Amino acid sequence: MVLAIEGGITVAVGIMTVPERAEHCRRLVDRIGGEIAVHVDVNHRGCWAAWKATWIACALAQPRATHIAILADDTAVCSDLRATLEALVAARPHSPIAGWLPRDQVELAHAQGLRWASTRRLQFVQLLVLPRELGDRALDWICDREHLFGDLWGTWDDERLKGFTLAHDLDTFVPVPNVCDHLGGDGTIKSTFGHRFAPESARARVWLGEDGRGAALDWSDLRAVGDQPVHPYRIPRILLTPYNTTHDEVPP
């Protein structure tokens, strides 16, 4: 089933980067093509400050966009990313969509011949697509709660966005195969924060590859494999945080 959006789907694309990765960012812009809003975190204020600035830049540059996709600069993407994003959004126009997820449910979905995985434990926001209205509300919700959860969230974008989706009982859906990968996972691009990742924790389990094309795949089967059980000692603290879940409703 593909759901229609009045006036059609338009996905604005933005990239957040730092000066040290300017050359790679230029290559990524050329690869994706079209109009792209690029935010350079010159003062290294961190992931969330850059994500928020990139979202605002996209919203200003393309005010009629129905959805906004934000990419981190250490991301590899499939060869037809723009067309793939439009196909994904056409299948799930009201939901958060992450371009990748380094977790078991992706492999399980692939083994079952399914096109989607889902998660409540959003992590590594290499590529996140949000409906414009939902993303605007996420920014407002997060900014209103910085004084409550800022110390827990640190400088991270995924922790804040995960807080919003948890508070509003939202699944984030992930295409299978993934449409992007994390270049920081294998040392291709060094972390600006000095992180060192175990390869299995920071690379896509199943992805299209840089030569792959996702737009021609059928994403209309919306069955998804969700989060697998986690041992109690591995549950992140943020999942135990008592967010206010009595907030305003989100679109179905």
Characterise this structure:
By secondary structure, this protein is of the alpha/beta class. It contains 8 helices and 10 strands. Residues 245-252 have low confidence and may be disordered. It has one domain: Spore Coat Polysaccharide Biosynthesis Protein SpsA, Chain A. The protein has helices at residues 22-32, 47-61, 81-91, 104-111, 132-144, 146-153, 157-167, 199-202, and strands spanning 11-17, 36-40, 67-72, 75-77, 97-98, 116-119, 127-131, 172-175, 180-182, 224-225. The two termini are 15 Å apart. The strands form 3 sheets. A 5-stranded mixed β-sheet has the order 2-1-3-7-5, sandwiched between helices. A 3-stranded mixed β-sheet has the order 8-6-10, with helices on one face. α1 (22-32) links the parallel β1 (11-17) and β2 (36-40). 42% of the residues are buried.
